[in-house]
Structures are given as structure tokens and as C-alpha cells.
């Protein structure tokens, strides 16, 4: 049990997918202008990434290893993730139009989020079992949502701040992201994970 | 090599079949009424009805949230068509939303234009071409005559020009029968 808790804390804080692994920067910078959209994107990504980790574990162990074609891993994971995102969108559109409206454009955008491909690939590298893969996916996605929401909050404050002209807009956002990344390095001291 | 091809082909076939099945099973029918109402609206995207465009107004009418007489560019004719479609009574145009005007397109006085791009940002149909500090001009066939570009212009160089009837734009008029009061006819 303790092993699983360490796995989650490690994925959320110590090896935060955005600040430490530097994955998924495109939505991190693109969808963090407003707090609500950041929360929507975080929720959608968490959902898809957990599913993606679970299904890529199944693909790896039921398809790629038995047929001895492990070199097809990246290709087959991309196909499976794209299909999951499509399927999720169809199901949500039918079952919960409200949720579909909230997630909106962010759902299809997840297909191109490199964190969603990177985390399942890492999970295979770490030789996780099925439960570990699911928790690793959910934990990493929670870390992504945390980073996104924190960053969106800071950016909303920055809108009202007096930023020197050369730093306005994306420049100050990148500086902020760098500082937050430095702050998250503090968690590296928890090197048990 | 062959097993790799078979694995990928099998994966693609299974996923394709699953998605195809899901798209049939989870199909969401759009509201056909909204599309019919939207087809009647003039698509000026002018926002005079108080909604951000023609489609949101059509949705609001279909949901019973908006009345049918809020569209000045559609005019009397549009209200009649909407009343027929929805089986409601005809109402005159709500004056709060504006008055019906003859179809017009915007025109930029290019001598006065300073190239500020404010009208470009206001145009809902991207019918203005130009760039910062370059002269702007209206692409007349695309202009819907919504007048949204007039207010932002800092030098007031945009005017509305009524579209003259040409052989290309002429349309058959609906027949109108004027009802004259009986008394008037008797005196005449």
C-alpha cells in the first residue's frame, strides 16, 4: 500500500510531468490564460491519461510482447491514444452534454499532448504492473493539472501587474514557468520516490 | 516483419471498427429546428438581436428564450417566414433592436484610413482586408452590412452604401396588394 502512495506522490510532486520532466508544455502555456479553462483541460487530461496508461499496458503485454514486435510501441500507442480520445469524446457527447460543453475543444486537443504519449512510454520503461501503470497515469495527470491550475492562477494575477514592456505576454509567462520549475526542484529532496 | 504488419493492421482494423460502431451508437442528432431557423436568418452576424450571432439567436428562438421579432436585417419578410415556420403570430419588428434598412455594404474612405486595424477586429465575417499601418478595404461581396465596423473607427472613415439594384442582384418582388380604405375609394 505504502508503495502505491509513494508512486503517486512521486508522480505528482517529485517528478512533476511539466516542471521536472518538461513534457506537455504546449497546453501548459496555451490553455493557462484563465483558471476555468485550465481546470477543464486538467480534468480532461486526467481522464484520458489514466485510460491511456491502462490501455497501453494492455497493448504492450497482450499484443507487442507476445508477437515480439516491441519496436512498434510508439506507433501503436499513438494510434490507441488517438482512438481513446475520439471514443471518449463520442461517449461524453452522448451521455453528458454539460461535461462536453465544459471540456469543449480541450478534449480533441489532448491527442497532441506529448505528456499523454510520454507517460505510458515511461510507464513501460519502469516495468510497472497494471495497477501501478494506472496510478502512475492518474498521478502524473494530477501533477499536470496542478501545474496548469497554479500557473493559470499566477497568470491571472500577472494580467494586472505592471510588467516591463519587453517582458509583456509570453516572455513573462516563460520566466514564471522557469521560476515555478525551480520551486518544484525543492521536492527533489524527497529522493525516496 | 510480417507479424509487425499484421499487428498494426489488426490494431487499425479493430480500432476503426470500434470507432465506427461507437459513432453510430453514440450519434447525437442536432436540433433540426435550429438549422431551419438559422436558414431564414440573414447571417449578417450583426448582434443587433442581443445574441452573439445568427446561430445563437436561432438556438434561443428554438428554446423559446427569444422572440421572433428581434432581427432588423431580416426585416418584416424574415419575421413572416419565422412566424410561418414556428406557427406563431406575426409581430412587428421590435424597435429596441433597430430598424429595417435597405441592404448596404460598408465602404472605407481610403484617403482618410490610417490603418489602425480596429475595423478588422470588429468584422464578424472577415470581409475587411488590410494590415497595421496599411490602407484597409472592404471585400464587398463578403460584407453583410452589419455596421459593426463603423463604431470602432477612430477617424470615422467608414460609411454604409446602399447596394444599387443591378441585373445581377435584382430579385422578383413578392406580390403586394394594397388595401385601400373603402371611404377613400368612394370619395375618389
Automatic annotation (TrEMBL), chain A:
It is found in: Cell inner membrane; Endomembrane system. InterPro entries: Ion_transpt_RnfA/RsxA, NqrDE/RnfAE, NqrDE/RnfAE_oxidrdctase. Coiled coil: none annotated. The keyword Transport applies. Its main location: membrane. Keywords: Cell inner membrane, Cell membrane, Electron transport, Membrane, Translocase, Transmembrane, Transmembrane helix, Transport. It comes from the Bacteria. Its EC number is 7.-.-.-. It is an enzyme of class 7 (translocase). The chain crosses the membrane at residues 6-31, 38-59, 71-91, 103-122, 134-154, 166-190. It is a multi-pass membrane protein. The complex is composed of six subunits: RnfA, RnfB, RnfC, RnfD, RnfE and RnfG. Belongs to the NqrDE/RnfAE family. Part of a membrane-bound complex that couples electron transfer with translocation of ions across the membrane. This is Ion-translocating oxidoreductase complex subunit A.
UniProtKB/TrEMBL annotation, chain B:
Its main location: membrane. Its cofactor is [4Fe-4S] cluster. Coiled coil: none annotated. Residues 1-23 are annotated as: Hydrophobic. Residues 29-88 form the 4Fe-4S domain. [4Fe-4S] cluster 1 binds at residues 46, 49, 54, 71. Binds 3 [4Fe-4S] clusters. It comes from the Bacteria. [4Fe-4S] cluster 2 binds at residues 113, 116, 119, 153. It is found in: Cell inner membrane. The keyword Membrane applies. Part of a membrane-bound complex that couples electron transfer with translocation of ions across the membrane. HAMAP family: RsxB_RnfB. Belongs to the 4Fe4S bacterial-type ferredoxin family. RnfB subfamily. The complex is composed of six subunits: RnfA, RnfB, RnfC, RnfD, RnfE and RnfG. This is Ion-translocating oxidoreductase complex subunit B. It comes from Uliginosibacterium flavum. The lineage of its organism: Bacteria, Pseudomonadati, Pseudomonadota, Betaproteobacteria, Rhodocyclales.
